[in-house]
Amino acid sequence: MTDKWHLIGEEGLHYSGTMSASISHELKNVFAIINENSGLLQDLVMMQEKGMTLQPAQLQQVSELIRKQVKRGDLIIKTMNSFAHLTDTPTAAIEPRPFLDLACRLSQRLANMRRITVEVDHDSNPPPFTANPFLLANLLWRCLELSFEYVQPDSLITLRATTDDHKITLAICGLEPDRTSTTFFDQTTVLLAETINCSITAVIEQGAIHIDVNK
C-alpha cells in the first residue's frame, strides 16, 4: 500500500510540475508580446515628439494586440486557478464537460508542440458524477499524453463524455486503429485507474481510449 501511494504521489508531483511549467511558458509568451507592443507604443510616442504625425489606426492596432493578450492571459490564469482547485477535496461532484474543457486547455500547448489539436465534443453533457478530481485529471492527462504517440502530426483528438445506467465514460477519440496497441497502458496509468475505481480500455477498432467511472 505504501509503495502504491508513493508511486501515485510521485506521479502527482510530476503531473503538477508538467502543467505548471506549461502554464508558466504560456504566461511568459503573453508578457513577451505585451512588452513588445509596449515598446512599439514608446517608439510611436518618440516619433510624435519629433514631429511625425501619428495615425489613429496605428495606436488602435497596437492597443488591440495588447487587449487580446490580456484576454489570453486572463484565460490562462483562470485555467491555472481551476487546476489548483482540483486538490481541494479528495472527492467532489464533477461536471463532465467543464472537466474535459479544463483538460483540453491544460494540454493545448503540449499538444501544439506535437502539431496535434485537442478539442471537446460539446454535443454530449452527462450529469455530474463523484470522483477524486485531481487523480482523475492526472489519469486523463496520462491517457491523453500516451495517445499523442498513436496519431500523426496535424491530427485531431476529441474528448467526449457519455453515460449509461452504470458509468460515465470519458473518451479520447481520433487515434489510428492500426497503430493502437493492446499494451497501451503502463503500470502507473493502470494503478491510477485502480486507485479511483476506474477502468481504462483501448478500444482498438474505434481508435479510442475509454475511461469508465462507476456511478
Q: Helicity range of the residues?
A: 40-55%
Give the ordered list of helices and strands: HHEHEEHEEHEE
Report the β-strand fraction as a percent range.
Answer: 15-25%
Rounded to the nearest angstrom, the radius of gyration is 21 Å
Largest sheet: 5 strands, mixed
Structural class: alpha+beta
Shape: elongated
Total beta strands: 7
Count the helices. How many? 5
Can you give me a brief rundown of this structure?
By secondary structure, this protein is an alpha+beta fold. It has 5 helices and 7 strands.
Would you kindly provide a written description of the structure presented here, covering whatever features stand out?
The chain is built from five helices and seven strands, in the order H-H-E-H-E-E-H-E-E-H-E-E. It is elongated and about 75 Å long. Strands 2-4-5-7-6 form a five-stranded mixed β-sheet. A two-stranded antiparallel ribbon has the order 1-3. Helix content is 55%, strand content 19%. By secondary structure, the chain is an alpha+beta fold.
Give the key terms:
19% strand, 215 residues, alpha+beta
Indicate the topology:
Elements: H1 2-49, H2 56-84, E1 92-94, H3 96-112, E2 116-120, E3 129-131, H4 133-147, E4 155-163, E5 167-173, H5 187-195, E6 198-203, E7 208-214
Helix pairs in contact: 1-2, 1-3, 3-4
